Amino acid sequence: MNIDGVDIFIERLQGDNQNLNFVLIHNAGGSHQFFSHQLDILKKYGNIIWWDLPGHGNSEPLNSYQMKDLAALVKKICKKLSLNNLCMIGLNNGANIIIETVVSQTLPIHSIILIDPPILMDDSFVKEIHYFIEQLDHPEYDKFVKTLVDSLFIETTTSNKQIALKAFNKVDKKSLQAIFSELIKWNDSSHGKLKKITYPTLCLLTDEHHCSYEKIAYEAPHLEIGKVIGSKCWATLEVPEQVNAMIERFLKLHKNLI
Description:
Rossmann fold, two-stranded antiparallel sheet, seven-stranded mixed β-sheet, 10 helices
């Protein structure tokens, strides 16, 4: 799909019913394939729209990666596809894009699911992001990515590692640098954003590498918060059975809103 002169890779999968339209937004450095283990469960409740962020996978880069621009892009995609009853699901920075979208854009949203949103981040994690930005210019970037992938999985299959390796090796590095730099700026002004969310929201946390349970619970006690074990970062790939079970429970609890 061409959006404002930029080609964005989008795939639509028809579900068993037409009740919901799931819009999946992956992590910075990843691809739509980071949600590959969620397809079967989501198809039971609606259609799936999964896509590659600009500069990732098969999507062309943008000139600007400000969070407001990414949120506007999400809205344009949803409007161009004439989507309603949206359940937006985001992983890591994809969750932050969803937060910005629902507080700054007007869309027919049913619910949102945030998986490890890097929001209200500790200084130590911000330093990790700065380090990653520097490594994007390293001549042995491929070796760095291999080390990164090995360290961010506690225990997973070779096929899951290949999904991550392929995505990080294919990403446009300038795009990724811009996204991570914008993430740090956005985080500095993120206080209060969770309070503005009025839709049913499930927030799944792993080992609190990206965000703290206490901070999110204090900032937005109205959110439904779930805890995932056995995963450090990419729970959708590593422990899909836990993620999928909590997603299904959440959807069943809010099916009366469809």
